[in-house]
Design brief:
By secondary structure, the protein is α+β, with helices and mostly antiparallel strands. The chain is built from eleven helices and 22 strands. One of its GO terms (molecular function) is cysteine-type endopeptidase activity.
Length: 443
């Protein structure tokens, strides 16, 4: 019998009421109580839900951009709009809360300062300090010096309190300073060129074509992570899953579009816009990851209350299918969904014993979807480590993606759940891959 995972800080990605959430997502509460998500109109004329707009602008900041762009698909131009607008317009259109304004202005200030001077946060007080002498690694923090009454200096390289000579210092005396950092746990094992060459020779017609690593290749991954909810418990620990997946996808050669805290409408709009990205034409595959509370009817938006604000997983396939996503036609599309699908426990007691002429294509093909649990059951999340589903995927991919195709990787994930997480079992759904999909990391 497996031990109850809740005892180790686990909770379900289901749906009880949370008081803390009301402190964060109050900006659209009034409109949602009226039964609608707040929608704003950008300078380009495109409508966008407020939650999607804020999530997109935060993503732009994460990409070190100090000007935002419209992410909506333009029906007339048949491409993503991309019209830019400054922070001032965002404030006018979105009516940001004080908390959000502080977030945006702090990040924008840091981006602006980075263009004007060389600066880093002091390890003592976290205030940003400029390095005036580019030839000296020893930098003095005036704030820490004033607070302590003693001169406080730190190393620009390793960001630890300074040790060693301070005049024209090219290195400090801290252990390990200047040496290459050791990779964190679960490093991605890279594929050897010989393995890829051998696979392609032996199974060429049974493997999806994969573009060799080069600047022209434009792989995209969409990651939607709902953490803060208006009525439901916040998904503490989900930020760990986000970081783990971002690192994995970047290692696999994908540019990750990460959007947090979306309503059902926001998720639907984000999926539609993602499906129309021009980069797909220069890609060989894509990943889409959803992490949220959920139920049998779908994925919960951040305003979910009872049966309201639910995004149907069918719409993921609809937006990426043969008809609606030409850029990914005949290319593998991998979908990962972390959410509950009901309230039942999954365990039971048992005894030991290009341009071509028109032709017919199936509407839904080249998909592979792995969900975190079977229908009607719960999915567990550790509030400190993240979900076992995402963390196990990252671990398995890091260790075996250099040699196994995607369905074998998923089989290994299921095997690990059977052996170590018996109360939950992921399952594949709507898998229509006709060939083996190898990721060939590093190549």
């Amino acid at each position: 019998m497996s031990q109850p995972e809740e005892d180790g800080g686990y909770s379900e990605d289901a749906a009880p009421l949370s008081i803390l959430s009301n402190l964060r997502i109050s900006k659209v509460e009034e409109n949602w109580k009226l039964g609608e998500v707040e929608v704003v109109v950008l300078l380009c004329g495109h409508e966008i839900s407020l939650d999607y707009l804020i999530a997109w602008c935060k993503y732009c900041l994460k990409q070190n951009k100090n000007c935002f762009t419209c992410p909506r698909f333009d029906e007339g131009k048949k491409q993503i709009c991309g019209v830019g607008f400054p922070y001032q317009v965002l404030c006018q259109k979105a009516k940001l809360t004080l908390e959000l304004k502080e977030h945006f202005e702090e990040r924008l200030g840091a981006l602006t300062a980075a263009k004007l001077c060389e600066y880093k946060p002091c390890p003592g007080c976290q205030s940003y300090v400029e390095r005036a002498d580019k030839k000296n690694l020893c930098v003095r923090c005036t704030i820490c010096t004033s607070r302590t009454g003693c001169t406080y200096e730190f190393c620009w390289n390793c960001r630890r309190e300074w040790k060693g000579p301070v005049i024209t210092a090219l290195t400090c005396a801290n252990d390990g300073c200047g040496k290459q950092e050791v990779s964190p746990l679960n490093p991605l094992v890279l594929c050897q060129p010989e393995f890829k060459r051998d696979k392609l020779q032996k199974e060429k017609n049974d493997i999806y074509p994969m573009t060799d690593k080069n600047p022209a290749r434009k792989r995209l991954a969409l990651l939607i992570n709902n953490i803060e909810f208006l009525y439901l418990d916040d998904r503490f620990g989900a930020e760990k899953d986000e970081l783990s997946m971002e690192k994995l996808f970047e290692g696999l050669g994908y540019t990750v579009v990460t959007l947090r805290n979306l309503s059902a409408k926001g998720m639907d709009d984000a999926m539609r816009d993602f499906s129309q990205r021009e980069e797909h034409k220069l890609s060989d595959s894509c990943f889409v990851v959803f992490m949220s509370h959920g139920s049998a009817s779908g994925l919960n938006g951040i305003f979910n209350q009872e049966s309201e604000d639910v995004f149907s997983t069918n719409d993921i396939f609809k937006h990426l299918n043969t008809l609606n996503c030409a850029g990914l036609r005949d290319k593998p599309k991998i979908i990962l969904i972390q959410s509950c699908r009901g309230e039942d426990d999954g365990d039971v007691y048992v005894q030991d014993s290009g341009n071509q002429r028109l032709h017919t294509e199936h509407r839904e093909k080249d998909f592979c979807c792995l969900r975190s649990c079977t229908p009607d059951t719960v999915s567990y999340r550790n509030i400190e480590k993240g979900t076992v589903f995402i963390q196990d995927i990252v671990e398995i991919f890091n260790q075996y993606a250099h040699q196994d195709h995607i369905e074998e990787l998923f089989r290994k994930v299921l095997k690990k759940f059977k052996e170590t997480h018996r109360r939950q079992m992921p399952c594949k759904e709507r898998t229509t891959l006709s060939k083996s999909f190898y990721l060939f990391p590093g190549l």
